[in-house]
Amino acid sequence: MNVMHLASPKAAATETAARPLLIDGKFVPALSGRTFASHNPATGRLVAHVCEGDAEDIDLAVAAARKAFEGPWSRFTPFERQACILRFSELVDQNFEELAMTDVLDMGVPITVSRSRRQRVLGLLRFYAGACTAIRGATTPDSLPGEMFTYTLKEPVGVVGAITPWNGPVVHTMWKIGPVLATGCTMVLKPAEDAPLTAIRLGELLLEAGVPPGVVNVVPGFGHTAGAALAAHGDVDKISFTGSESVGRKIIDASQGNMKRLTLELGGKSPDVVFADCDFKAAVQGAAMGVFANSGQSCTAGTRLLVERSIFGEFVDAVSDFAKTLKVGDGLDPDTQIGPLINRKQLDRVTGYIDLGEREGARTVSGGRRLTEGAYGDGFFVEPTVLAGVTNDMKVARDEIFGPVVCAIPFDTFEEATTIANATSFGLGSGVWTQSLATAHRMAKAIRAGTVWVNTYGGLDPAVPFGGYKTSGIGRECGLEQMEEYLETKAVIMKFA
Ligand code: ADP
Question: Which residue ranges form the domains of the chain, and what is each CATH number?
Answer without folding.
Answer: 3-266+472-491 (3.40.605.10), 271-461 (3.40.309.10)
